[in-house]
Design brief:
Layout: H1 2-8, H2 11-31, H3 38-59, H4 62-67, H5 69-82, E1 96-98, E2 101-103, H6 105-125, H7 135-154, H8 158-174, H9 179-199, H10 203-213, H11 224-236, H12 247-250, H13 262-269, H14 271-295, H15 299-323, H16 341-359
Antiparallel strand pairs: 1-2
Helix pairs in contact: 2-13, 2-14, 2-16, 3-16, 5-6, 5-7, 6-7, 6-8, 6-15, 6-16, 7-8, 8-15, 11-13, 13-14, 14-15, 15-16
């Protein structure tokens, strides 16, 4: 079994991930020299912590993990409620403080919710490919995703909440949902987005959108970070200014440079070639994740893999897009590259799950639309 698992694994996924982690570590090493490499050291520690989790999630059959996902779902909901009563950090109640470290439940909720949704959807698929399109069944799936999303919005963390929705939509599409629901959803979004903007979004979120639409609106206030990010990326040109030599990075104009704007650090100090290489690595990684979904041995594996692909796609697109001014700033980290223990561990677990599914694949099972 282990020999067949190793033979079938999509090793290119692991290679892309390792390269992204290495680039991220190099960028963090340069960006944290003024802080005695504190975050770089912590990131290295989290990589070490992640290794046993990666091994476990590769070896343990994903079907076994899916069967106990309802328990994990209940636990993560409790944690998402509990974190709302913690002391705010930068205006958000998203983290539990454990000594000098912090733990972000929303990051782990991604993989847990994907497993639980996939488990329920695979049960429905056994009764027929149209089962998922029944209103009662669809409402169950919406409720499963809505509870954690609403709790995450309450923190508030709109970027992470959006990642859940993108993943959910991709899972429903692969699950063979009736096209009428897709059309209806688009219409609902078109109608509700303006209403949400006017009546729901807080002022700081509205300000970010306004700055995105008019980047010269408040260059010293809400638009400051975006301005510095674009200056940094532009200054890097083809080959970069060199490690420890980026003006915006090293002089403190770029903030937060180790998380939200790590891509800007890379663009400034390593240049266009490395920045472009990162995008290529993500494209290969996400494409391979979709291929794993297509070639999974069962519906369960297909749903899990496409859900993970959706998470990675949103994070990559949103983070890089916001640093160059193509998308609003939401505070979404760049997977495997940005500093953050919870983010790194949860993303590496997702990669391990992809390797798990690919190692046990047999044939393509994408449901016919």
């Amino acid at each position: 079994m282990k020999k067949r698992l190793s033979k079938n694994i999509e090793w290119s996924i692991l290679i892309c991930t390792i390269l992204l982690v290495i680039i991220g570590l190099i960028a963090l090493f340069s960006a944290t020299q003024s802080a005695e490499y504190d975050e770089f050291k912590k990131q290295m520690l989290w990589i070490g912590i992640s290794i046993p989790f990666i091994i476990a999630f590769v070896i343990i059959d994903y079907e076994t993990i899916a069967k106990i996902s309802p328990i994990f779902y209940g636990v993560i909901i409790i944690l998402l409620v509990g974190v709302l009563f913690t002391e705010p950090i930068n205006g958000a109640t998203s983290w539990f403080s454990i000594g000098s470290a912090t733990l972000q439940p929303a990051e782990f909720a991604k993989i847990i919710v994907i497993f639980f949704l996939s488990f329920i959807m695979s049960k429905m698929a056994k009764k027929g490919k149209k089962e998922i399109s029944r209103p009662t069944r669809l409402l169950i799936l919406i409720a499963i995703i809505a509870i954690p999303v609403l709790l995450i919005i309450k923190q508030p963390d709109y970027g992470t909440a959006m990642a859940f929705l993108v993943s959910f939509i991709m899972m429903l599409f692969v699950g063979g949902i009736d096209k009428k629901y897709i059309i209806a959803s688009v219409l609902i979004i078109v109608i509700t987005v303006p209403l949400l903007y006017i009546f729901v979004l807080p002022d700081h979120a509205k300000k970010r959108i306004e700055v995105f639409l008019n980047q010269d609106l408040d260059p010293r206030g809400a638009g400051y970070n975006l301005t510095q990010s674009k200056l940094a990326i532009g200054a890097g040109q083809l080959l970069g200014m060199g490690l420890f030599k980026g003006n915006q990075t090293q002089l403190g104009y770029l903030s937060p440079k180790t998380t939200d704007f790590i891509f800007s650090v890379i663009g400034e100090e390593m240049g266009f070639l490395i920045a472009a290489a990162i995008i290529i690595l993500y494209v290969v990684l996400i494409t391979k994740a979709i291929y794993v979904a297509k070639t999974a041995k069962d519906n369960l594996g297909s749903y899990i893999a496409i859900g993970i692909a959706g998470i990675l796609l949103f994070h990559m697109t949103e983070n890089i897009g916001m640093t160059i001014g193509l998308l609003p700033i939401t505070g979404v980290p760049l997977p495997f590259v940005s500093y953050g223990g919870s983010s790194l561990l949860s993303n590496l677990i997702m990669i391990a799950v992809l390797l798990n599914i690919s190692g046990r694949r047999q044939k393509a099972i994408f449901i016919e639309q």
